[in-house]
Amino acid sequence: MCRAIQYKTVIRTWLALAVLCAGTARGAGPSYSAAGIVNASNFAAGPFAPNSVISIFGTGLARSTQAMGADDIRSGMLPLELNYVRVYVQDQPAPVLFVSAGQINFIMPGIQNPGVVRVRVVVEGLTGPEITVTLVGAAPALFPMAGGYCITTSADGKLLTADAPAHANDFVVVYVTGLGQTSPNPPLAVIPATAAQMTGLTSLQVALNGTALDPVRIKYAGLTPGSAGLYQINLVLPDGTGPDPEIWVSAGSLPPQTGLKLPLR
Question: How far apart are the C-alpha atoms of 90 and 128, rounded to whole Å?
């Protein structure tokens, strides 16, 4: 069972992650380093997964701030250029969601296979340094919200909070990024219209307070239809976990992100 977030909500999510900076002087090329390329959901360093939303921090990254809007999405395709800014991965343009003088949010193309890839920014024809980053099959990251909770909804799409928590045996949807390639795998810049399971499902683990969930409780892990760079994990919660358990999501050999809670009573 898949529950899609409306795309305008996803746009607001990525905007909330953005650091709005002052405009840059004309004629200055973009400047950034490997240390400034991080996961947009939690600002963690790489490695990254294909189809993750990535932030680049630096200077001279755009003439002014601009976020992707509905008018930038054409025929179900994300823009490959925003405010005269492009991001290239392996010399191919990548979808761009947000630009400012100090930050760019873009989607690592889902068609890229794991390995070392080259990333560079071009602003009004001026090219920045080419930086190499490492891609892995999956690099899950949760979305934090107020109170130290992760963004989770009920089966009917209502946001779970401390005041409106889930309960044992509830069906919930945990939103993540970084689950990597899927089957089917969307083409470059195409907003997925349907559900698509992650290809590395056998390596996925979800744990509550350090105890891994029985895989039969994971009903789906893959793309959120109608959203780009966004995934969901559909779960049936177990009994006896205790209130507000810490949730871990891991895949492959990477350690899980820690410190976020799932609203549960």
Answer: 14
Report the residue count for the chain: 265
pLDDT band for position 17 (cuts 50, 70, 90): very low
* CATH 2.60.40.10-classified regions of the chain: 7-135
Contacts of 134 (CB under 8 A, 6+ apart): 46, 47, 48, 115, 116, 117
Check: CB of residue 131 under 8 Å from CB of residue 108.
no
Tokens (6 digits) for 247: 């949730």
Over 60: is that where the pLDDT of 19 sits? Answer: no
DSSP state of 95: -
Q: What fold does the segment set 7-135 form as a domain?
A: Immunoglobulin-like (2.60.40)
Q: What is the pLDDT of residues 69-119, one digit of tens each?
A: 999 999 999 999 999 999 999 999 999 999 999 999 999 999 999 999 999
What integer pLDDT is reported at residue 130 of this predicted model? 98
Closest of 228, 225, 190 to residue 13, by C-alpha: 228
Instruction: Round to whole Å and give the CA distance between 233 and 242.
Output: 20
User: Residue 48's Cα: distance from chain center in Å?
Assistant: 10
